[in-house]
């Protein structure tokens, strides 16, 4: 039995017009799937499969917690996730992905493995920015970061670092060195 055999849905052998499946995605699942966004979590997925006249509608309700690195201090943090996603599946001659959420599977196989789709739905429900609440970041990392930032908000800056009350501004060090050949080329433009 393969790692993801329990995530196969037999569409061809469906007796009723709808079926319901329950999955728990745990640390072992995330370790086996080996995706870059999430390595640990506990997520409950309820999958409802409905047969329509020409296809199957798979509705995924995903709720749980994943652990991801904090963008600021790199410590793991709990992140609650919740999403509702749909996937349409129809039979065809060979496997294909058509459009955003339409999958074609070979009719002779008659089944679809939803393990990777569930992982994608979990990964897509994670916000782009994930940081600890103010004051909850790793204190050692925060102190190391504060050594490399300025504390005056008067100067030009691009990014603000929140340490839980004290506003500290990150200074972006950019040295602009111009190749002297450009200056010579600009003289040509000025002469025209």
UniProtKB/TrEMBL annotation:
Superkingdom of the organism of origin: Bacteria
Pfam families in alphabetical order: YceD (PF02620)
Protein's name in the database: DNA-binding protein
Annotated organism of origin: Bacteroides faecalis
Lineage: Bacteria, Pseudomonadati, Bacteroidota, Bacteroidia, Bacteroidales
